[in-house]
């Protein structure tokens, strides 16, 4: 191909200025054939035309775009969990696919906080916007206190 072009240039060079300039016929655009057996031009079958080092045009068949796992309540992408194609999740370890928290790989942190508020006893609800760890600790404390009071009452009843 390249040689032919050079040949044309040489011929053009030999023409005198009085003759009409000779333009080589425009070359047909190279046809590009699919490399996969899926002929449908759908939104998910995406391709890119790439020129190889040899000057040929070939298709690069692109993979589907990954989507991030979403929070089941508010729908935002879960922070800390990568967006991958399904088979790629099998190649990474579990700690990369979840967050070390209750509802870790399923709900976002804010939603977990608001969920906790519904479960909480009335006296702890003022902690709505504070640290969830602190609140969880207080809930556990409240449970222990209740137990202690119960056992004391029982003990008192026996006496
Ligand atoms: Zn959420």
Query: Secondary-structure element sequence?
Result: HEEHHHH
Our count of helices gives: 5
Which outline best applies?
rod-shaped
- The neighbouring-strand order within the major sheet is 1-2
> How does the helix and strand content classify structurally?
mainly alpha
Structure summarized in a few sentences:
It is built from five helices and two strands. It has helices spanning 2-14, 86-89, 94-97, 109-119, 132-158; strands at 46-51, 57-62. A hairpin with a 5-residue loop joins strand 1 and strand 2 (57-62).
Q: Your description of this structure?
A:
With 159 residues, the chain is mainly alpha-helical. Among the domains are: 32-64, no CATH class; 70-118 and 133-143, no CATH class. 37% of the residues lie in helices and 8% in strands. The protein contains 5 helices and 2 strands, in the order H-E-E-H-H-H-H. Strands 1-2 form a two-stranded antiparallel sheet. The longest helix has 27 residues, at 132-158. The radius of gyration is 35 Å and the shape is rod-shaped. Residues 1-14 have low confidence and may be disordered.
Give the arrangement of secondary structure elements.
Layout: H1 2-14, E1 46-51, E2 57-62, H2 86-89, H3 94-97, H4 109-119, H5 132-158
Antiparallel strand pairs: 1-2
Zinc ion binds at residues 71, 73-74, 76, 107-108, 110-111.
């Amino acid at each position: 191909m390249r040689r032919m072009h050079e040949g044309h240039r040489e011929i053009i060079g030999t023409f005198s200025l009085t003759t009409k300039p000779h333009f080589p016929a425009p070359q047909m655009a190279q046809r590009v054939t699919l490399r996969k057996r899926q002929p449908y031009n759908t939104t998910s079958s995406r391709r890119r035309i790439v020129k190889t080092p040899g000057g040929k045009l070939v298709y690069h068949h692109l993979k589907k775009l990954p989507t991030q796992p979403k929070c089941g309540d508010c729908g935002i992408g879960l922070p800390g969990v990568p967006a991958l194609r399904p088979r790629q999740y099998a190649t990474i370890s579990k700690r990369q696919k979840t967050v070390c928290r209750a509802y870790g790989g399923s709900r976002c942190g804010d939603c977990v906080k608001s969920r906790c508020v519904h479960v909480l006893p009335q006296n702890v609800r003022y902690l709505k916007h504070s640290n969830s760890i602190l609140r969880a600790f207080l809930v556990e404390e409240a449970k222990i206190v209740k137990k202690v009071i119960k056992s004391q009452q029982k003990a008192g009843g026996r006496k």
